[in-house]
Amino acid sequence: MNEHISMRVNSARLSGNKGRTVRLPCKVLRLSDDIAIVEASDGGQVEIQRKNVDMTATYVEVIGNVVDASTIKAMATLPLDSEGELDMQLVNDVIELTFESRFDKLFPRYKDT
User: Which string of DSSP letters, residue by residue, matches 8-33?
Assistant: First the structure.
């Protein structure tokens, strides 16, 4: 089952997931042709390698592979825009809860190798 997991992470959690597929809820700050700079739910900035991946919404969830502690190579994005602002502190609180051992049965994780 691990091959189908894509955990939600914030910028602080990227370093422990190099080479893995993750989901990063974020706010788009800047776009260029193949790169986007986003703000993760914990306030950290992440570079998104986004060749042929649409990021036109203000808030998106990036699904991609972690290149390093501050870079994700995007495979796809999901728009998260709603009426007004997205409560990124609440998003971050939920992300951090998913890493607590008391929720192991609810949120599958990568097995460390």
Answer: E--GGGSGGGTTSEEEEEEEEEEE-S
Q: Which helix (H) or strand (E) holds 4?
A: none
Summarize pLDDT for 2-47 with one digit per residue, the tens: 556 789 999 999 999 999 999 999 999 999 989 999 999 999 999 9
Contact 61, 48 (CB under 8 A): no
Q: Which two tokens stand for residue 32?
A: 């260029």
Residue with tokens 């969830």: 61
Instruction: Report how far residue 48's alpha carbon sits from residue 56's, in angstroms, rounded to the nearest whole number.
Output: 13
Q: CA dist 92 to 40, 59, 62, 97, 112, Å?
A: 8, 14, 15, 9, 23
Q: Residue 88: what are its φ and ψ, rounded to 5°?
A: -70, -25
